[in-house]
């Protein structure tokens, strides 16, 4: 099939054809899945029972809480299998729809295979570097007393890193796998009713969400239980359970590493194809979006899957893994300081919260049911999704309160669990407000986007000015909400009644950790809404390319517009959670530095020149990274624009449906360019903190400041987090607003499609594309990866 596409030899292109030549090839399946599917059913069943038996045996040897977590995760996997069968049982529609879907599937799986092959090689190289660093570093006093030397510590960290990278890659593949199969089924369902199409898209996203969240929780739980049993934790002369979470930081770094490159590569791919297709197709040629005459349309539709589905799956996996590990570290530290008799509840609390997340999000997903309403007005899909989210939020409040009473009750402070439950409530309310703020600034039902659409009526320049100002303004409310959330949660934790041996309150940081858990306690449902967006976008493209009736396109257009809003709201949600998680990881980094250096490390003084310079470098890193990410999209888009223009000039019959566009040429251009372009910004993110810490460590050695390297890196991390949050909010909101301003005009406002106002809105949309789908999402992954890499590489700075 790809050879046919490359050569443009897919047969005669009749007047507005309703069928496409067979483009199906042998589907790609990763080696692991091919081996599993090749096994005899009975053998596979026995192996699964054996694996589950080992998992539950290790869990039982660790804690009953771990057994509970394992049980919920496995139940969620079984539920996701049901969702898969339900979605795949839906028909693929007429042949012309199926053939387009096959082309999208082949392009997405081919790019995924190449991209993750590159990422895996870089991960192995970095694993060797980590191994070398840990083999020659000092160990902490806790590790020395437990008999864990440098060699054991090195291999533990590398194993955790590689496992995190592997699980993050699987999470990305799952996100892409379901989207390329659900898109055509949503298109087909739209021919019958809008509600059925909505339900198919939501359940397809739900499958991916349950797998991603379940894998993140199960991966950390398995690693924790394995180390607990292997190292004989809490037995005489061995490691204490409160120190065990520090061994898991490699897992978070591995997940962050893969998520960053997946987001960069996928974001460059999807937005370069989108920009190229829009600028030439819509603006220059005046043809509709996803028109089959546009040579870049297949590349654009492939990009929705590799950029928005695969990358977002890896992204949320990393977010949950980092938050769980940082909260476990802080819970263990606080329990040790307070001399709590059984600290396991405080350490394993994050795993239980996210286990309940799987349960309540499943209820929210199944609350969206199909009722055929042929001939009636299309129900607003956003309201349907909000109802499901409301159900999930209510259940989250109830389960979170129950979890705190179960695990965080202690005789030393009988009312502490209530304070922490309120911390969780702060996080849940914060997530809801974040979703509402993002919706307000990006949904065309609200004034900001309509004002932006009005600005398009006076030209391209005023559209850009209005979009930039909207994005800048949109940073204010989220920052205020985050500030209030952090201070409130910290105060509730401090007043919980938990004190150390000196009588000093110690629950503040753990309170912020609990608030972060509360914010992410509905993560599976939020990811479902996020995955809904690209699936609906793809469905609309398939409907347009296969030239279905206008009534079908109207349904998919509504779903697509809602999908743009849900993607924007979930990005706002992700930024908020990244801010809180980075704060936790920063605190964990300071604790780890103190443990390695055998010196107190409680504060960072930015009045010290070198430390202030570190902060400047952190802020600079965010802006330079953003610039390189956007310029990568721009350079690749230029290649696409030139190629599409060339085809329209050399094949004039394309516009009259007499010649077939060479779709494969654009696919090849964006695939090769995105893999090439993702290396530079990704390398900048990894090398910068290590290089800065190492250089200032040497400077500190000669000036008599042993912690200078660690302090400079701490300032770099602090300033990068603050700058990154603001930059990501600006980029994501401005890009989403530009996109939906264009959608609003396409509904008929201000002249509708093809008008000068529409062309100005398309320009704004193309400017916003790299903002909202490449640089913006990559930045919030970047700030979490900076936090995890400093945790793993702390020995380099000392």
Features:
single chain; 798 residues; mainly alpha; 24 helices; 0% strand; globular; disordered N terminus
In summary, what is this structure?
The protein has 798 residues and is mainly alpha-helical. 78% of the residues lie in helices and 0% in strands.
**SSE pattern, N- to C-terminal:** HHHHHHHHHHHHHHHHHHHHHHHH
Gap between N and C termini, in Å?
55 Å
Percent in strands: under 5%
Unreliable stretches: 1-26
Structural class: mainly alpha
Shape: globular
The overall pLDDT average reads 84
How much helix is in the residues? over 70%
Number of helices: 24
The total of beta strands comes to 0
Instruction: Give the oligomeric state of the chains in this entry, treating copies of one chain as homo and distinct chains as hetero.
Output: single chain
Number of domains: 1
What Rg, in angstroms, do the CA atoms define? 26 Å
Outline the biggest β-sheet.
none
């Amino acid at each position: 099939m790809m050879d046919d596409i490359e050569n443009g030899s897919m047969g005669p292109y009749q007047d507005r054809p309703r069928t496409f030549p067979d483009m199906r090839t042998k589907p790609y399946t990763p080696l692991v899945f091919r081996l599993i599917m090749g096994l005899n059913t009975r053998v596979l069943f026995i192996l699964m029972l054996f694996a589950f038996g080992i998992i539950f045996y290790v869990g039982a040897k660790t804690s009953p809480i771990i057994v509970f977590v394992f049980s919920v995760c496995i139940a969620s996997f079984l539920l996701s299998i049901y969702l898969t069968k339900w979605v795949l049982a839906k028909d693929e529609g007429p042949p012309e729809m199926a053939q387009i879907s096959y082309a999208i599937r082949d392009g997405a799986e081919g790019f995924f295979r190449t991209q993750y092959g590159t990422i895996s090689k870089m991960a192995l190289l970095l694993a060797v570097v980590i191994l070398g660093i840990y083999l020659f570093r000092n160990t902490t006093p806790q590790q020395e007393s437990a008999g864990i030397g440098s060699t054991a510590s090195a291999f533990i960290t590398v194993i955790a890193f590689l496992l995190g990278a592997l699980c993050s890659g699987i999470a990305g593949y799952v996100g892409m796998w379901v989207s390329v199969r659900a898109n055509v089924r949503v298109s087909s369902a739209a021919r019958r009713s809008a509600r059925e199409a909505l339900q198919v898209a939501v359940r397809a996203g739900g499958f991916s969400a349950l797998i991603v969240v379940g894998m993140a929780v199960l991966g950390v739980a398995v690693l924790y239980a394995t180390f607990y049993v292997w190292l004989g934790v809490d037995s005489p002369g061995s490691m204490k359970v409160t120190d065990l979470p520090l061994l898991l930081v490699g897992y978070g770094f591995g997940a962050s590493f893969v998520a960053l490159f997946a987001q960069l590569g996928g974001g460059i791919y999807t937005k370069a194809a989108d920009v190229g297709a829009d600028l030439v197709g819509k603006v220059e040629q005046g043809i509709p979006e996803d028109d089959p005459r546009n040579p870049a349309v297949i590349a654009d539709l492939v990009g929705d899957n590799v950029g928005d589905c695969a990358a977002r799956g890896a992204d949320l996996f990393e977010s949950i893994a980092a938050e769980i590990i940082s909260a476990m570290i802080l819970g263990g530290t606080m329990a040790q300081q307070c001399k709590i008799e059984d600290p396991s509840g405080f350490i394993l609390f994050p795993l239980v919260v996210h286990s309940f997340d799987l349960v309540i999000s499943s209820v929210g997903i199944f609350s969206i049911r199909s009722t055929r309403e042929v001939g009636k007005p299309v129900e607003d899909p956003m309201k349907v999704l909000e109802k499901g989210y409301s159900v999930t939020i209510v259940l989250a409040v109830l389960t979170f309160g129950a979890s705190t009473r179960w695990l965080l009750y202690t005789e030393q402070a009988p009312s502490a669990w209530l304070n922490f439950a309120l911390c969780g409530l702060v996080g849940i309310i914060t997530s809801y407000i974040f979703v509402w703020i993002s919706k307000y600034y990006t949904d065309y039902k609200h004034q900001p986007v309509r004002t932006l659409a009005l600005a398009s009526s006076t030209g391209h320049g005023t559209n850009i000015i209005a979009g930039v100002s909207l994005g800048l303004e949109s940073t204010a409310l989220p920052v205020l909400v985050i500030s209030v959330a952090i201070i409130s949660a910290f105060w509730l934790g401090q007043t919980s009644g938990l004190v150390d041996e000196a009588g000093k309150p110690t629950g503040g940081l753990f309170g912020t950790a609990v608030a972060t858990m509360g914010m992410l306690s509905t993560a599976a449902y939020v990811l479902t809404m996020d995955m809904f967006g690209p699936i609906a976008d793809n469905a609309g493209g398939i409907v347009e390319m296969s030239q279905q009736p206008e009534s079908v396109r109207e349904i998919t257009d509504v779903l697509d517009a809602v999908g743009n809003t849900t993607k924007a709201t979930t990005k706002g949600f992700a930024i908020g959670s990244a801010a809180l998680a980075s704060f936790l990881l920063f605190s964990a980094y300071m604790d780890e530095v103190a443990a390695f250096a055998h010196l107190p490390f409680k504060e960072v003084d930015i009045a010290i020149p070198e430390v202030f310079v570190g902060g400047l470098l952190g802020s600079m890193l965010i802006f330079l990274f953003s610039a390189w990410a956007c310029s990568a999209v721009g350079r690749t888009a230029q290649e696409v624009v030139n190629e599409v223009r060339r085809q329209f000039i050399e094949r004039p019959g394309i516009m009259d449906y007499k010649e077939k566009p060479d779709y494969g040429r654009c696919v090849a251009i964006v695939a090769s360019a995105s893999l090439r372009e993702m290396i530079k910004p990704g390398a900048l993110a990894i090398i910068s903190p290590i290089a800065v810490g190492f250089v200032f460590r040497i400077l500190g050695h000669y000036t008599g400041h042993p912690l200078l390297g660690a302090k400079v890196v701490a300032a770099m991390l602090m300033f990068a987090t603050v700058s990154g949050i603001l930059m990501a909010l600006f980029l994501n909101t401005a890009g989403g607003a530009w996109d939906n301003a264009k959608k609003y005009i396409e509904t008929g406002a201000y002249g509708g499609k093809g008008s000068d106002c529409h062309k100005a809105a398309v320009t704004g949309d193309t400017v916003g594309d790299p903002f909202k789908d490449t640089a913006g999402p990559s930045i919030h992954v970047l700030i979490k990866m900076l936090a995890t890499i400093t945790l793993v590489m702390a020995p380099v700075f000392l």
